[in-house]
Write a structure and sequence with these properties.
- The protein is an alpha/beta fold.
- The protein contains ten helices and eight strands.
- It has one domain: Alpha/Beta hydrolase fold, catalytic domain (Rossmann fold, 3-Layer(aba) Sandwich).
- Helices cover 35% and strands 19% of the residues.
- The longest helix is centred in the C-terminal third of the chain and has 16 residues.
- The radius of gyration is 18 Å and the shape is globular.
- The model has no long low-confidence stretch (mean pLDDT 95).
């Protein structure tokens, strides 16, 4: 008989204002020490960081904090959401992160984001470098050109969740275990209607930073980039180009991993992450 196991993670809701609208945002924490704020990918939620939340090698020295963006996971949209099309913008994304930090009294965190989270850490480096001890971009590039028809992500004649999962399925590295692969896809299958499409408004058009990344000052806030070898959305070459334009940015390419390293292969990803965290603490 297998004994039950309860994870050492606590969760709750914080009520806060974002751009003048009241929100109910879900968050989870684990561990203690230096705050490590984790930002999920487009169309998914903070369950992607389950491996980080349960790694004592990390939680012994870091307080890991994850939250679901409004419209995602266990966070609700604001009242009146049904009257508008959801579209994530750079300003809304940054304002949401800062609002959560202020509400939870998160001071001087290391912020780590993947995909759209990897893009927004670049915006944070430009706009609020003084608020962070360091920034870690996973699958981080200044721009990604659309390579599929976004209209398929929100149509009444198809199952939106299955289409979203189908689109991202090829982005998972070929060596991911079956359980981790399908859990990553399950999170996408559960997304709200139009949410993935709305996130990609930021990722594929409005959040383009190609003309601005050269202004990032890593002397004000260190920037680390970790990119999976098998990602064709933000390719290793995309991240190399980004690192070349940001003086002092540190880049590592992770062999065998894809677009969702923390979710598709948590143990392997942590082996790449730990030297970065050690360097930040040092």
């Amino acid at each position: 008989m297998t004994h039950a196991h309860i994870e050492a993670t606590s969760g709750g809701y914080v009520h806060l204002d974002i751009q003048g609208k009241r929100h109910r945002v879900y968050f989870e924490t684990a561990g203690q020490g230096q705050p490590l704020l984790c930002l999920h990918t487009a169309g998914s939620d903070s369950r992607q960081y389950r491996g980080i939340m349960n790694c004592t090698q990390i939680t012994d020295r870091f307080q890991v904090i994850c939250f679901d963006l409004p419209y995602h996971g266990k966070s609700s949209p604001p009242e009146g959401w049904e009257q508008y099309e959801y579209r994530l913008t750079s300003q809304l994304y940054v304002d949401s992160i800062i609002a959560v930090m202020d509400a939870l009294e998160i001071r001087n965190p290391v912020a780590m984001g993947c995909s759209i989270g990897g893009r927004v850490v670049l915006h944070l480096a430009l706009r609020h470098p003084e608020k962070f001890k360091a920034l870690i971009g996973l699958q981080s590039g200044a721009h990604v050109a659309p390579y599929y028809n976004l209209e398929w992500l929100h149509r009444p004649d198809v199952h939106g969740g299955e289409v979203c999962a189908g689109i991202v399925s090829g982005l998972i590295g070929p060596h991911a275990g079956s359980g981790d692969r399908w859990e990553t896809l399950w999170h996408y299958m559960q997304g709200g209607p139009g949410v993935f499409k709305g996130d990609l408004h930021f990722y594929k058009s409005e959040g383009d930073l190609r003309e601005l990344v050269g202004r990032i000052d890593t002397g004000k806030c260190p920037l680390h980039l970790l990119t999976g070898e098998f990602d064709y959305s933000c390719t290793p070459d995309d991240s190399r180009a980004l690192a070349e334009h940001i003086q002092g940015a540190r880049l590592n390419i992770m062999p065998g991993l894809g677009h969702f390293p923390m979710s598709e292969a948590p143990d392997e990803f942590i082996r790449h992450l730990m030297p970065v965290l050690e360097q930040i603490l040092a």
